[in-house]
Model the fold of this input.
Amino acid sequence: MSLIDLANPTRFLALTARVLPWLAATTVILLTIGLYQSAYAPDDYQQGATVKIMFIHVPNAWLSMFVWGVMSIASLGTLVWRHPLADVAAKAAAPIGAAFTFLALLTGSLWGRPMWGTYWEWDARLTSVLILFLMYLGLMALWRAVDDPARAARAAAVLTLVGAINLPIIKFSVDWWNTLHQPASVMRVGGSTLDKSFLIPLLVMAIAFTLLFVTLHLAAMRNEILRRRVRSLQMMQASQKAA
Amino acid sequence: MTMSLGPYASFIVTSYAAAALVVVILIGWVMLDYRSQTQRLRELEERGITRRSGRNATELR
Done:
């Protein structure tokens, strides 16, 4: 099957029906390993056991940006290549991205209270991620507000691409401004500054959460294709009644 | 091997519980949505509304 075949929703449904059980099983296995490693990772000399919050905070923070990146590529697919599954992919990803961003904010806040002495600080990193969360909600509202999926798709694609400007701001906010949030310690020039005892569980959890996103996203895309079939059959029914 | 969460155990447990809850909600949402859409398609097909291709709308394989 070539890549172009995936442009056909029926073929996409057939392929994902075969792939999804394997993806779900791999996600469960990796999450189990990651949670076990996180539970028995040593305490940090400064943070103590609260370092365990990092094993879910960092993957969710990474996914909050990754999902918007996926939506931005899908938006290009809608506007430039008019790929029939591009807006399906963008629409299906938004609620999942919003959920991961919410978890990044919540777990960061729960880590901040014992470590910084505050749940929230209006610093550049926290504020830019909050803006990302609000953009996810705005995008979901836009999809709901416009009845015609094709019209909604174009407006949402433009909004998504404009919102992508926020991604480098989030990433480099800790370098550009004087923030309470610590600078990058995993993805940085010169390699990670983390000890292997923390880095390995963190990477396993990050891969597990990414696979979780892929699994949920493909399943949500299937649902969106079915929803559009329902819509077109309902329109067909209405036109038959009118004739 | 034992696991000690120290004085901030409630923050750690709440973080993991919240993550588990959100993931369960996401999985539930996807599964219920799938059930709802296939049910609606079946109802439409039972009323004789079929796709132009003539193929079953719930045909996924």
In short: DSSP finds seven helices and no strands in chain A. Residues 1 and 11 of chain A are 9 Å apart (CA to CA). Chain A touches chain B through 42 residues (CB under 8 Å). The radius of gyration of chain A is 20 Å.
